[in-house]
Design a protein that fits this description.
This protein is an alpha/beta fold. 54% of the residues lie in helices and 9% in strands.
């Protein structure tokens, strides 16, 4: 690859930004690097040259940002990659941080990012290509840090606007990557990169303890190497299909996984209450449209349905709804059969331990449902296929895939009802457990 592309990197005089600029120049890219102080960036990286342009820029100043972006585009003849890296950490418990302190942090971390985007995106749109890297923080995905509430809020804001930006720019050929760095050995926790509240309150001992832990223990002992993080960003840019979300650092990955587990548990524990708030008999068109917009998600769901069909056929069980299964097969993505084979006849093992721990609860629910259905033979006979399906869907813990197969309904009837993550092991077992309850009667 001819590394002649132009990178525009904010916050390039120290930390991750400095490491990135050095890695880019070493790889042959052309780089414009900004800092609030021109002397800081030139002291760190040298004077201007045909391949390097140092610029003084405060991202919170919209007019100054527009001039800096224009100067870089004029110097190099255009821009290809934008890296929004500049920012600082405002420490302090949420109540302690004054309005002025909070606004300054948002001006630097959020509105500065917006100013750079507004100045640079017209150039990328005119070229019909480009890549935007917005540097958030693991604190923009996991907010459980006492004394960092406002800073985390700025990074959550960056994460939210970046996900939406991805959708804005995807049709225009411009790529977007949201970066969540963990703890890297930079100057972020030192004076000049973080600010303490002007009026701390004695009540927030936990916030003081967190601040001391970060400044006295973590600073200088961070596990992440910023030079390796810089190389990871370059590799992401050079990848054929760069990701939207990029976690950097083993600690960031671990914290993100813990957050995902917490959210899954919260969803499972409150599922009945959560889904009880909709109008009766209505599906959620947003879920249906999202599945249509995201083929990968739709393929995974259809592949799961195809996998369950394959499993039932592989076990040699009689299938009273062959026509429905045939219809489902026609709608399954062509890769579904390959997915089934790769997973040993259709068993996709996800969250096995969680499924086991919830087996007793499901058993009680199934028993209650069985009593309801079998307690009145006349009522059971009166149930139409649609009613059987809707009744099955009122049991929130059971997976939709199992309901589709067990109720003998084609997949499109409930495609819009997919909620959350399917647990295939549970779906397989529940499909077989529920099937006798929904057998069609002549």
């Amino acid at each position: 690859m001819a590394n002649n592309q132009v990178w525009f990197v904010t916050g390039g005089s120290k930390g991750l930004g400095l490491s990135l600029v050095r890695a880019l120049l070493a790889a042959g890219y052309r780089v414009a690097a900004t800092s609030r102080s021109l002397s800081d960036v030139t002291a760190a990286l040298g004077a201007a040259s045909p391949r390097f342009l140092p610029l003084a820029m405060d991202p919170a100043d919209s007019s100054g940002t527009l001039k800096a972006v224009a100067a870089a585009a004029e110097h190099f003849g255009g821009l290809d990659v934008i890296v929004n890296n500049a920012g600082y950490g405002q420490l302090g418990a949420v109540e302690e941080v004054s309005d002025a302190e909070a606004r300054r942090n948002f001006d630097a971390n959020v509105f500065g990012t917006l100013n750079v985007l507004r100045a640079a995106l017209p150039i990328l749109r005119a070229r019909g290509s480009g890549h935007v890297f917005n540097i958030a923080s693991i604190g923009g995905y996991v907010g459980g840090f006492s004394g960092f509430g406002v800073y985390c809020a700025t990074k959550f804001a960056v994460a939210g606007l970046t996900e939406s930006l991805y959708e804005d720019l995807r049709p225009l050929g411009i790529k977007v990557t949201l970066v969540y760095p963990g703890y890297f050995r930079t100057s972020f926790l030192k004076e000049g990169s973080r600010t303490l509240p002007a009026s701390p309150l004695d009540a927030y001992k936990n916030a003081r303890d967190s601040e001391r832990q970060h400044t006295e223990q973590i600073d200088g002992n961070q596990p992440g190497d910023p030079d390796k993080a810089a190389l990871a960003l370059v590799a992401t840019y050079e990848a054929a299909s760069p990701p939207l979300h990029l976690f950097l650092g083993a600690d960031a990955v671990s914290m993100a996984e813990a957050k995902l587990d917490t959210m899954r548990r919260a969803i499972d524990e409150q599922r009945s209450l959560s889904i009880s708030t909709g109008f009766e008999g209505l599906t959620c068109p947003q879920h249906h449209n999202r599945a249509r917009r995201a083929p990968a998600v739709g393929m995974r769901r259809r592949a799961l349905a195809g996998t369950l069909v394959s499993l039932r056929a592989g076990r040699g069980r009689a299938c009273p709804q062959r026509s429905s299964h045939a219809q489902t097969r026609e709608l399954v993505h062509p890769e579904a059969e390959a997915v089934a084979k790769r997973n040993g006849g259709g068993v996709i093992r996800r969250q096995v331990e969680e499924v086991r721990t919830q087996r007793a609860r499901r058993g009680r629910r199934l028993e209650a449902q069985r009593r309801l259905l079998q307690g009145d033979g006349g009522r059971r006979a009166e149930l139409t296929k649609r009613e059987r399906l809707l009744h099955a869907l009122t049991e929130p813990h059971l997976t939709t895939a199992a309901h589709v197969l067990a109720a003998g309904s084609s997949f499109p009837e409930v495609r819009g009802r997919q909620h959350g993550r399917e647990v295939a092991d549970a779906a397989v077992e529940e499909a077989h457990e529920l099937r006798p309850l929904f057998v069609h009667r002549a």
